[in-house]
Amino acid sequence: MAREAEYRVKIAEYDWAALLDLWETIKAGETPDWEPGKAFEYLVLRAFELDGVDVRWPYTVTLAEEQVEQIDGVVYTGALACLIESKEWQKKKAGIDAIAKMRNQLLRRPAATIGAIFSRSGFTAPAFTLAQYLAPQTILLWTGRELEFALERKAMCGYLIDKYRYSVEEGMRHYNIVSEVIP
């Protein structure tokens, strides 16, 4: 847990420009001061924080003194509560296991809670399909390109809400904020 506190202090120094620089080092696979995946995880949460929302940083959930979940973070914007999961793999796309994990986490939370999975290298076709049919749970998928797009525009919350609204209005779980089309 000491490392987590160090990461919180470190990421708090990043502004939007520094986050974009960090994003470039993540894409290049050059984050030696971070444990694998942690730079990506903290970048996502810091971007939401810079956009003015409440953030719960990574934490564990215990039951009967045993760790049952590791949560990458939670963001709150207005009445929307969103569990965050970050997958930072260089070449491997996030598959159905990431969707299933998030679904199980959402099953233990109030029905209005949604999930968002950020995957640097995108998602497999089965993951997109599974996310589409998880009613009543809502899991919004963010590719690395979408994250970069939102970072460049300093608009994480606005795009989270756009993705959520599309899910509500169209009944579709993935709205690509870059191309505005379903993959």
Major sheet strand order: 1-4-5-6-7
Range of strand content: 15-25%
The oligomeric state is: single chain
Strand tally, please?
7
Structural class label: alpha/beta
| Percent of residues in helices | 40-55%
Low-pLDDT segments:
none
Major sheet details: 5 strands, mixed
CATH class, named Alpha Beta
CATH architecture: 3-Layer(aba) Sandwich
Structure annotation, total helices: 7
Average residue pLDDT: 92
Shape summary? globular
Here the CATH topology equals: Restriction Endonuclease
**What's the alpha carbon Rg, rounded to whole Å?**
15 Å
Q: Sketch the topology as an H/E string, one letter per element.
A: HHHEEEEEHEHEHH
How many domains would you count in the coordinates? Answer: 1
Roughly how many Å apart are the termini? 38 Å
In CATH, what is the homologous superfamily?
Type II restriction endonuclease, HindIII
Structure in words:
The protein is an alpha/beta fold and 183 residues long. The protein has a single domain, classed as 3-Layer(aba) Sandwich (Restriction Endonuclease). It has seven helices and seven strands. It has helices spanning 2-12, 16-27, 38-50, 96-107, 125-132, 144-153, 156-170, and strands spanning 54-56, 59-63, 66-71, 73-77, 80-87, 114-119, 139-143. It has a five-stranded mixed beta sheet, sandwiched between helices. A two-stranded antiparallel ribbon has the order 2-3. Helix 2 (16-27) packs antiparallel against helix 3 and helix 4 packs parallel to helix 5 (125-132). The longest helix is centred in the last third of the chain and has 15 residues, at 156-170. The model has no long low-confidence stretch (mean pLDDT 92).
